[in-house]
UniProtKB/TrEMBL annotation:
InterPro entries attached to this UniProt entry: Centrin_CML-like, EF-hand-dom_pair, EF_Hand_1_Ca_BS, EF_hand_dom
Protein name as it appears in the record: Calmodulin-like 3
One Gene Ontology molecular-function label: calcium ion binding
Organism lineage: Eukaryota, Fungi, Fungi incertae sedis, Mucoromycota, Mortierellomycotina
UniProt signal peptide: none
Amino acid sequence: MQQTQFTESQIVNIKQQFNSIDKDRDGYITEKEFLEALKNANRRPEDYDSQGFFSRADKNRDGKITFNEFLDACHELGLGKAAPATGQPTKKSQQEIDNIFNQFDLDGNGFISAQELGQVLSKQGEQLTKDELKEMIRAADLNGDNQIDREEFARMI
């Protein structure tokens, strides 16, 4: 495993992503689980090179991706960092940010609470504990009000 330069909160977020893909909770992501995650995220699997992703991420070639391999792949792809390693722009338009934010802001008050985050993630099949939800909010909450506003959300994604 190579040394990654992620902050603790970035590692927490990446671990939560890993866990949301690892549906059978065996500690590995299979290609089938990866494809299912793409479908659940309303992505077309045919738009992604899942075999290429696996061949690059599966360092020991056992057909499964461990969390450490996933973390390394995120590092290599520039995910979770302010600027991508590939130099490709990843900035979302304000409209995209607003659309995504609005999916989480269930009561329309301009903030995402831990409860709203939990409800949305639950609908996507992700069951997190209250502590995990609080940690996700804390990781993005810059002003310490225990919720995520649009500006904090935009910085996060």
